[in-house]
Amino acid sequence: MFAHELGLRVGSRKPILFVEGKQGGLDETIYRAIYGNFTVIPSGSCGQVIQFVRSFRKQEELHWLHCAGLVDRDNRDPAADGALEEGIFTLPVHEVENLLLAPEVFFALAEELKFDKREATRRFDTLTSDVFEAAGRDADRVSLRHTSNVIWQSGKSVGAKAKNINELSRIYAELTAKTDPSSIYSDFHSKYQGVLAARDFEQLLLLYDNKNKLLDMLGKALDLQGRSALENLVSRLLVSPTASPLTGALVQRLPVIDTGTY
Predict the structure, then answer these.
(1) pLDDT in tens, 208-224
(2) Does the chain have fewer CB atoms within 10 Å around its N or its C terminus?
(3) What gap in Å lies between CA 9 and CA 43, rounded to an integer?
(4) What letter does residue 254 receive in the DSSP assignment?
(5) Spatial distance between the Cα atoms of 119 and 114, rounded to a whole number of angstroms
(6) CB under 8 Å to 72, separation ≥6 — which residues?
(7) What 3-state DSSP class applies to 85?
(8) Burial of 192 (0-12, 13-18, 19+ CB in 10 A)
(9) How many angstroms separate the CA atoms of 176 and 184, rounded?
């Protein structure tokens, strides 16, 4: 998408924010509402977002236009400000859907739906119990998925700098020696079980990756008829000209991205 094509899509001197997801998706709806000083461009996968930011920064003809990227956390380990590298930030939860279950976001939605504080608290307590129960049942699946992702990410760089087959063989041997699926699985599974045992909901939102189930449970907790009703509510509140508590709650959660630094 670079140079001429991107320039046509931008049409202004607003900085660019590349994000995961597709046009019209939940990701775009949330990010457009929160990062109004950016032109938000859905770019598919995390890898594509990172590639676009890196490529964009190399384009001399676009030197006048700043850009940044925002990707799902996906068990990455960013810096304290949420940055993976210069100009690329991560969510404070595993993926964007998990944001909607954060306490302040849930209570903002409950307020919009006219639940009083006592009833909202009761519903949130029920929701967290349901999430912990589901997360416990999914412990093996989540741990296996994490292990597979770690191995996949490690393997993507194999041979990138190899000059001949002997060097490629050496790099591959070193990588496989350091990449032990059993250890990766065991370490993550132990961490995950520790979060479940501690009933640490904040940490669980960082690790648990079952967005469809989470959104179904959230919709049920708010008396909404399915995931589409929940997404429609979020979209309506975020595009409303009247300020919504939901917007403020999401601002508290999402990383601060400076429009003039990148």
Answers:
(1) 999 999 999 999 999 99
(2) N
(3) 13
(4) S
(5) 10
(6) 20, 46, 90, 91, 94, 95, 96
(7) strand
(8) buried
(9) 13
Place of tokens 């990410």: 153
Do the beta carbons of residue 33 and residue 238 sit within 8 Å? yes
For 183-230, the three-class secondary structure string (H helix, E strand, C coil) is: HHHHHHHHHHHHHHHHCCHHHHHHHCCCHHHHHHHHHHHCCCCCHHHH
Instruction: Residue 224: name the closest of 70, 87, 104, 109 by CA.
Output: 109
Which tokens go with 174? 């070193």
Q: 3-state class of 246 per DSSP? A: helix
Q: Take residue 147 and report the two structure tokens written for it.
A: 């292990």
Which residue reads 């919504």 in tokens? Answer: 244
Token duo for residue 13: 């001197």
Which residue stretches of 26-116 are H helix? 26-34, 46-58, 96-99, 103-112
Q: What are phi and psi of 75, to 5 degrees?
A: 65, 20
State phi, psi for 49 to the nearest 5 degrees: -60, -50
Is residue 33 within 8 A of residue 239, CB to CB? The reply is yes
Tokens 């002997």 appear where? 166
- Which comes out higher in pLDDT, residue 155 or 206? 206
| Euclidean distance between CA atoms 209 and 214, whole angstroms | 9
Helix, strand, or coil here: 19?
strand
Q: In the prediction, which pLDDT does 240 show?
A: 85
Rounded alpha-carbon distances, angstroms, from residue 200 to 4, 67, 130, 140: 48, 35, 14, 18
pLDDT of residue 5: 43
pTM: 0.85
Query: How do residues 124-181 score in pLDDT, each as one tens digit?
Result: 999 999 999 999 999 999 999 999 988 877 776 665 567 888 888 888 887 777 788 9
Q: Identify which of 23-27, 61-65, 68-72 has the greatest average pLDDT.
A: 68-72
